[in-house]
Design goal:
By secondary structure, the chain is mainly alpha-helical. The chain is built from 8 helices and 2 strands, in the order H-H-E-E-H-H-H-H-H-H. The protein has helices at about 1-15, 20-30, 55-65, 70-75, 80-95, 100-110, 115-165, 170-175; strands spanning about 40-45, 50-55. Strands 1-2 form a two-stranded antiparallel ribbon. Helix 5 (about 80-95) runs antiparallel to helix 7 (about 115-165) and helix 6 (about 100-110) runs antiparallel to helix 7 (about 115-165). The radius of gyration is 26 Å and the shape is elongated. About 5% of the residues are buried.
């Protein structure tokens, strides 16, 4: 099954970017991981294309028992403070970014035609400040969101590990549980 997928992926990549099929096939074989992984994600050697294949059984299981939004929200409940700061940073960056067009209009319509160098200096300084503030807010937002996401993933992994550890030996030795 995995070999068929890599051949299909090679054909898709080659038709998408024109890379030599033999080179693509060799690169795909190098990227193929264990049979246990249901998702196969491969990047083209030229770097322009990517093929992702997800096992249809995973899609079927998700369709039969979807994850509720409430369950996802419970994962983020302990991180309500950082999540609020992320939302505030996104909104603030958007609002601060709205100042750029007004400052540019001020420069084009007032400072340049009237040769007002003081106004020009203040407007350019304000534009630089807006760009710097937007950058800082973006860094804060990215850092907090990444940290929060990593903590949620760590908690999920710990919960799964704890659940697996709590299973009896019969669970692992009974046929049909693999």
């Amino acid at each position: 099954m995995r070999t068929r997928l890599t051949t299909l992926a090679a054909a898709l990549l080659c038709s998408a970017c024109g890379t030599d099929p033999a080179v693509t096939q060799a690169m795909l074989q190098a990227h193929v991981v264990s049979q246990a992984q249901p998702t196969l994600s491969i990047r083209c050697p030229s770097g322009g294309c990517e093929v992702t294949y997800t096992d249809p059984r995973d899609r079927q299981q998700l369709a039969e028992s979807p994850v509720s939004g409430a369950r996802v929200l419970t994962l983020f409940r302990p991180h309500a403070g950082p999540l609020t700061i992320v939302v505030i940073a996104v909104v603030a960056a958007s609002v601060v970014g709205l100042a750029q067009p007004f400052l540019l209009r001020l420069i084009i319509d007032d400072a340049l035609p009237n040769r007002d160098t003081t106004l020009l200096a203040w407007a350019v300084g304000a534009m630089i400040g807006v760009a710097a503030l937007t950058g800082v807010l973006g860094v804060v937002q990215t850092w907090l969101a990444t940290t929060m996401g990593q903590r949620v993933m760590c908690r999920l992994r710990a919960d799964v590990f704890s659940h697996v550890q709590s299973q009896s030996m019969a669970f692992f030795s009974t046929p049909g549980t693999e």
